[in-house]
Design goal:
With 330 residues, the chain is α/β, with parallel strands linked by helices. The chain folds into 3 domains: 125 residues, D-Maltodextrin-Binding Protein, domain 2, CATH 3.40.190.10; 86 residues, Periplasmic binding protein-like II (D-Maltodextrin-Binding Protein, domain 2, 3-Layer(aba) Sandwich); 101 residues, Double Stranded RNA Binding Domain (2-Layer Sandwich). It contains 10 helices and 13 strands. The strands form 3 sheets. Strands 2-1-3-10-4 form a 5-stranded mixed beta sheet, sandwiched between helices. The radius of gyration is 20 Å and the shape is globular.
Length: 330
């Protein structure tokens, strides 16, 4: 390799910068001859903070502006790799782009953050009518299934903005539901009062992992990213993304997953749920498969097969009946 600089791009939020810096450290640890340069930019999803995500677009909200820079004509501005939260990446990328690698996943669960000074530690302790802040239909749908006596309202903004909102003495929110990984990466995991497993809430597809997007066929970056790819996380996330792709689900529809992969035994365990927005109807299923030598293809086949089985069980009907336009915009 003759080029000694890798130009990394990412979003401008504090969390996104922390994620880009983590990838920078991985590359420089693996390739002592490389220096990395970071560029941050705002995406449409960052700029529109007053509406819930399902009301104005899909995953491209977080990716398009950065993707454009992968093909920028000016070599000083052109990116070599874009760092995304994998859950924000479309399962089908535009022509000319590819998912170059998935890094080691941080805890993919969702978690509960109570307002500062709250006497409560779990959702089960909250009084009827308490307001739970979340902009995710997936989260609110699953919580309505288990906690129908609580209220659910949209809350947008970066992590610190959301924490400020819930901690405001005049806040309507009793608590927030957030991704555990974001709080861990920001050193804010001390705010977590409860982490959820699948018995309460299946996590989002790709949650907790970073997806590294590159130009299609960029051999140099493929060689670089092969050194920082995490096999366990990649197997799990490829299966999850294949399930979502087959179900034709976007970032705001109520599809939840839970996966684990043993590299030693090559065994992938995969559970998933599709649930209606009111939490009253759902399809839940699971599978366990041993991946072969072509483990990436096998992982994606596993996700596809589980999705097809869930469709036969009624999952597609649930998704087809969700009319996001009728959901409240708060």
């Amino acid at each position: 390799m003759t080029q000694d600089t890798v130009h990394i791009g990412g979003r401008r939020s504090k969390l996104a910068v922390a994620q880009s810096e983590a990838v920078q450290r991985m590359i420089q640890d693996a390739f002592q001859q490389y220096s990395c340069r970071l560029t941050t930019t705002q995406t449409l999803g960052d700029q529109v903070q007053f509406k819930p995500l399902y009301s104005f677009g899909g995953k491209a909200l977080w990716t398009k502006e950065l993707e454009d820079l992968l093909y920028e004509q000016d070599p000083e501005l052109r990116l070599d790799v874009v760092v995304h939260s994998l859950k924000d990446m479309p399962t089908l990328l535009p022509d000319g782009f590819q998912l170059g690698a998935i890094t080691k996943r941080v805890d993919p669960s969702d978690c509960l953050v109570m307002a500062q000074g709250s006497p409560y530690r779990t959702l089960a302790e909250l009084p009827a009518g308490s307001v739970v802040g979340t902009s995710s239909v997936r989260r609110s749908a699953q919580l309505k299934r288990h906690f129908p006596h609580l209220q659910y309202q949209s809350v947008r903004g970066n992590i610190h903005t959301r924490l400020d909102k819930v901690d405001d003495p005049d806040s309507p929110y009793a608590c927030l539901i957030l991704a555990t990984a974001g709080l861990v990466r920001m050193g804010l995991d001390y705010r977590i009062s409860q982490r959820f497993d699948a018995s309460t809430m299946y996590h989002a597809v790709g949650q907790g992992a970073l997806g590294l997007e590159i130009r299609q066929g960029d051999a140099r970056m493929q060689r670089v990213l092969a050194e920082i790819e995490d096999v366990e996380s990649t197997a799990c996330c490829l299966a999850e993304r294949a399930l979502m792709r087959t179900l034709e689900g976007g970032c705001s529809v109520p599809i939840g997953v839970q996966t684990s992969y043993s590299v030693a035994t090559r065994t992938l365990a995969f559970s998933a749920i599709v649930i209606d927005v009111e939490g009253t109807t759902w399809v839940e299923d699971s599978t366990r498969v041993v991946l072969g030598d072509d483990w990436r293809a096998d992982a994606m086949q596993c996700g596809n097969d589980l999705a097809l089985r869930m469709i036969q069980g009624g999952a597609k009907k649930i998704l087809d009946e969700i009319n996001l336009a009728k959901l409240p915009v708060k």
